[in-house]
Amino acid sequence: MATQQQLIDLFGAGNITCLDVSDREVFKSAGIEAAELFDVGLPDRLTGMFSAEVVSDPETFDGVSASIGGTQVTLVTLGAPHSDSDLRYYLNPLDGQILLARLVAENVEIEVVNESLGNFIEFLYRIGRYKAFSKAADDSQQADYKDLLTAYLTTLDPGSLKESDNWWSMVIRQL
């Protein structure tokens, strides 16, 4: 899994957002396992697929009450696909899954995008590496790298790329 140093090397030292150590107890008392948010962090932005800096509520790391499968839960907001999106990435503390959701009362949409927070961060890191590599690569090199990337991510988190209309499947096609 990606480390904080790997994220810093790729995205830059001032472009990683972590929770403050003081929040660790709040998360622990709420039963939320999210060590990666303290120890690794999230990139502030990966163009076209992730932004920790959003222009409207809920903001990154806000708790959001939702009903999932008939169970009331407080989801942890991780960011959005882009800064002005009404979709949000959430950590579900009940099972550790990462959701991409629009939680509008009359039109709730939820998709599981990753089985764990670690996998989510790894996806962002690996796709970010691909994007950095592709700037100087020819079409053949990009295609080879994309094939390797897809195989790696599929092995890491099979459900995330299982269907052609899954979020990550669409992201990979657009690379």
TrEMBL record:
<dbReference type="InterPro" id="IPR025851">
    <property type="entry name" value="SUKH-4"/>
</dbReference>
<protein>
    <submittedName>
        <fullName>SUKH-4 family immunity protein</fullName>
    </submittedName>
</protein>
<dbReference type="Pfam" id="PF14435">
    <property type="entry name" value="SUKH-4"/>
</dbReference>
